């Protein structure tokens, strides 16, 4: 991402220099200007511009972009026009970036592109192109990078096969349909292809075998189509490093040819219908990210699990058995998510030797036994809810959980703020404020502890007050007794607290009223007594948060519960709206606790998480494109 920013700033700097230079040159010299741009190239560009319709597009508008072609005027040097890059010696136009430029197609769009035959780089992403891409595009024989991401293209011409210099092709988020070979043609001639993204279309059928014969293909994104199978196994694809195939309709066993992709580092097969067992031969791979989430896999995890893993997500399958002890050697592991399976094991204490482990999700399995004597130096999100853990927690229990007591880091670059790397972002579902919330990307500063739905007993450890960075605490649905520790008043980052359905007694600590981010609390179904504290944090709560505690009383409670029977006829839409507001204000609260993070990135996070699909990809995509241009 750093590279991306450096590059964009360099480009815009260079452009402005060129621009200024162009102006000065024209102003100062009275003689006819000598343009770098070749006249034939200029005329082709102007004609190209005229072929498009500039349509209002709400996304471009909301991203505050303007049509780049606006600056294209016949009387200035076309090499200074926005989105254009020329060969500095010959004046040939070699790069054309018209992303997000409100371009809609009439008939015959792009026909004049033939005259821009020196192009190596063409970016028409984030426009409104529809229908078939004209076959003239196949004449751009020098093209190495082509980005058509986010349009409404439904067909690609067979002349595409002539683009045999392509190293990167992005046709994701379009309307390509039909089977693969029909929709995408035969790219076997593109022997240089390194990066291919056809995600988010409606392509169906088998993944064609020839894809694996492209010798230089390292990154392949097939996500979010309706592929059903991988076709015949291939003894190729040896250079494949990143394979994304989530959100398709793959069925049957995971093909064992995957094990032959020896360079594979990231494998994402999540959200498919794979059944059968995880192929044991996968032990031979050196994966850093493996996501098999949301399939129908059964059996156990491979005994010798992948030593280089940073992320292992096998949540929402039908896996059984124990966690393999070999995970101890995955010393880079940051995320382990096995939620919603049938693992039957004791608490994996031995994971505490993993120095990088930040997220541990054992939710909804058959884990059992006590969990005392654990210490997780870096753990930031731990969700062991809905298992059969029991026993009590010693009062100093949280003293060794330093990951939640101080983070001590700020992140300047947006990518560093999220779990995962720039290509794979970890996501998870978490109960927050009584709502199931999907964290599309996980903020690194986010910390949560969910022990709910087990059989823990005894007192809530006083040392909980040390987890000063904790945002979400859920201890509900256990058998905790005793008082709510007043040390919770030290959890200054806390936003959501749920201790419902325990056997807690005594008073609700006044100290909670001073936690300024705390906007959700649930104390229901305990044996709490005394006065409900006053103050705005409490006043905002739902009366149901105090249900089932007959001993609670006081003016504050009366106030909270006063309006309980007055419900409006439009309750559903209204509460949905409130819910969204809730989420936004929760994130606003997060903003408050991260010094040094640019506002825009947090807003970005909101969009990433809660806004429509089309907001999700521009940065990731542009970033990838730019980084691939910087490599040559
Ligand atoms: C641009 O201007 C030149 C003369 O300055 C003219 O010959 C040419 O036809 C013009 N091109 C277009 C596309 O208008
Ligand atoms: C373009 O669309 C946006 C959002 O839909 C709208 O606010 C704006 O007024 C439109 N602009 C024009 C010139 O129609
Ligand atoms: C474009 O390519 C086709 C073959 O794909 C060829 O027949 C045609 O002459 C080319 N056009 C130009 C202007 O080069
Ligand atoms: C593909 O999409 C086009 C236009 O949207 C439609 O006419 C055609 O029937 C679709 N083909 C298939 C196989 O679904
Ligand atoms: C792709 O092209 C190769 C070589 O031209 C040919 O052998 C193969 O049958 C083609 N495959 C498809 C699916 O068109
Ligand atoms: C593949 O990559 C290698 C090294 O990166 C390069 O030398 C070669 O030209 C590329 N193309 C083919 C077809 O192997
Ligand atoms: C997959 O595509 C559908 C539309 O075809 C879209 O609604 C959905 O958000 C996409 N999912 C992902 C993960 O991109
Ligand atoms: C996915 O496959 C199942 C059967 O294997 C089928 O019933 C379902 O319609 C398919 N879904 C799509 C979107 O093609
Ligand atoms: C877990 O395994 C033990 C035996 O190893 C068995 O007694 C117990 O019933 C299992 N628990 C569940 C929930 O399957
Ligand atoms: C792959 O495609 C999916 C769906 O379009 C997208 O969410 C994801 O970011 C893509 N991955 C990469 C590495 O580009
Ligand atoms: C809260 O933290 C302060 C220091 O950070 C400490 O002195 C105080 O004892 C703590 N209070 C409780 C109730 O743990
Ligand atoms: C209070 O919570 C209950 C259950 O979660 C919900 O049904 C109700 O609508 C909430 N009331 C208000 C006023 O938010």
UniProtKB/TrEMBL annotation:
Signal sequence extent: 1-30
Q: SUPFAM superfamilies, alphabetically?
A: L domain-like
The cellular location(s) given in this protein's UniProt record come to: Cell membrane
Record's bilayer topology term: Single-pass type I membrane protein
Domain Leucine-rich repeat-containing N-terminal plant-type: from-to ranges: 39-87
Q: Which Pfam family, an example, fits this chain?
A: LRRNT_2
**Record has Transcription as a keyword:** no
Give the main location. Answer: membrane
**Entry's transmembrane regions:** 583-608
UniProt entry keywords in alphabetical sequence: Cell membrane, Glycoprotein, Leucine-rich repeat, Membrane, Receptor, Repeat, Signal, Transmembrane, Transmembrane helix
Name one cellular component (GO) term: plasma membrane
- Please name the SMART domains in this protein's record: LRR_TYP
Q: Does the keyword Transmembrane apply?
A: yes
What the record says about family reads: Belongs to the RLP family.
Q: Which PANTHER family match?
A: LEUCINE-RICH REPEAT RECEPTOR PROTEIN KINASE EMS1-LIKE-RELATED, LEUCINE-RICH REPEAT-CONTAINING N-TERMINAL PLANT-TYPE DOMAIN-CONTAINING PROTEIN
> What's the protein here called?
BnaA01g31220D protein
Q: Which organism is it from?
A: Brassica napus (Rape)
């Amino acid at each position: 991402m750093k590279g991306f920013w450096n590059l964009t700033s360099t480009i815009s700097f260079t452009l402005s220099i060129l621009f200024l230079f162009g102006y000065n040159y024209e102003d100062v010299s009275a003689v006819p200007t000598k343009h770098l741009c070749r006249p034939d190239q200029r005329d082709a560009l102007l004609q190209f511009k005229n072929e498009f319709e500039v349509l209002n597009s709400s996304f471009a508008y909301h991203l505050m972009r303007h049509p780049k072609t606006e600056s294209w005027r016949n009387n200035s040097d076309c090499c200074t026009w926005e989105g254009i890059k020329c060969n500095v010696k010959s004046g040939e136009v070699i790069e054309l970036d018209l992303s997000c430029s409100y371009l809609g197609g009439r008939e015959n769009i792009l026909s004049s592109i033939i005259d821009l035959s020196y192009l190596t780089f063409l970016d028409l992403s984030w426009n409104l192109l529809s229908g078939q891409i004209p076959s003239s595009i196949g004449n751009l024989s020098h093209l190495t990078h082509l980005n058509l991401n986010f349009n409404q293209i439904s067909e690609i011409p067979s002349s595409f096969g002539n683009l045999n210099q392509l190293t990167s092709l992005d046709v994701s988020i379009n309307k390509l349909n039909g089977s693969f070979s029909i929709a995408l043609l035969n790219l076997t001639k593109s022997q240089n292809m390194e990066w291919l993204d056809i995600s988010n279309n409606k392509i169906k059928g088998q993944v064609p075998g020839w894809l694996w014969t492209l010798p230089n293909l390292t990154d392949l994104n097939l996500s979010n189509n309706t592929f059903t199978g991988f076709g015949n196994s291939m003894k190729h694809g040896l250079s494949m490093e990143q394979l994304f195939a989530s959100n398709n309709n793959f069925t049957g066993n995971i093909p064992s040819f995957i094990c032959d992709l020896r360079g594979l580092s990231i494998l994402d097969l999540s959200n498919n219908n794979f059944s059968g067992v995880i192929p044991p031969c996968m032990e031979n791979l050196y994966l850093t990210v493996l996501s098999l989430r949301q399939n129908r896999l059964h059996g156990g995890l491979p005994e010798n699990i992948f030593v280089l893993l940073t992320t292992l997500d096998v949540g929402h399958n039908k896996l059984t058995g124990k966690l393999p002890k070999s995970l101890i050697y995955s010393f880079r592991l940051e995320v382990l998510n096995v939620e919603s399976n049938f693992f039957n094991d004791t608490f994996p204490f031995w994971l505490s030797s993993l120095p990088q482990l930040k997220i541990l999700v054992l939710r909804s399995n058959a884990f059992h036994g006590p969990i005392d004597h654990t210490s997780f130096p870096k753990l930031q999100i731990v969700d062991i809810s809905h298992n059969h853990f029991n026993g009590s927690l010693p009062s100093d229990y949280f003293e060794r959980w330093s990951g939640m007591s101080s983070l001590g880091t700020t992140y300047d670059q947006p990518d560093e703020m999220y779990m995962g790397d720039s290509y794979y972002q970890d996501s998870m579902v978490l109960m927050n404020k009584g709502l199931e919330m999907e964290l599309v990307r996980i903020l690194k500063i986010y910390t949560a502890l969910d022990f709910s739905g087990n059989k823990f007993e005894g007192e809530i450890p006083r040392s909980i007050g040390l987890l000063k960075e904790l945002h979400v605490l859920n201890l509900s649905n256990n058998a905790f007794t005793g008082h709510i520790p007043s040390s919770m008043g030290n959890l200054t980052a806390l936003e959501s607290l749920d201790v419902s359905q325990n056997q807690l007694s005594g008073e609700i600590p006044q100290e909670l009223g001073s936690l300024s981010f705390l906007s959700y609390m649930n104390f229901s179904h305990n044996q709490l007594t005394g006065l409900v504290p006053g103050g705005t944090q409490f006043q905002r709560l739902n009366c149901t948060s105090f249900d089932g505690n007959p001993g609670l009383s006081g003016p504050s409670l009366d106030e909270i519960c006063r309006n309980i029977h007055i419900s409006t006829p439009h309750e559903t839409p209204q509460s949905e709206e409130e819910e969204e507001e809730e989420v936004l204000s929760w994130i606003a609260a997060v903003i408050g606790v991260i010094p040094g993070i640019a506002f825009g990135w947090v807003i970005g996070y909101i969009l990433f998480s809660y806004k429509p699909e089309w907001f999700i990809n521009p940065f990731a995509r542009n970033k990838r494109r730019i980084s691939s241009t910087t490599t040559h």
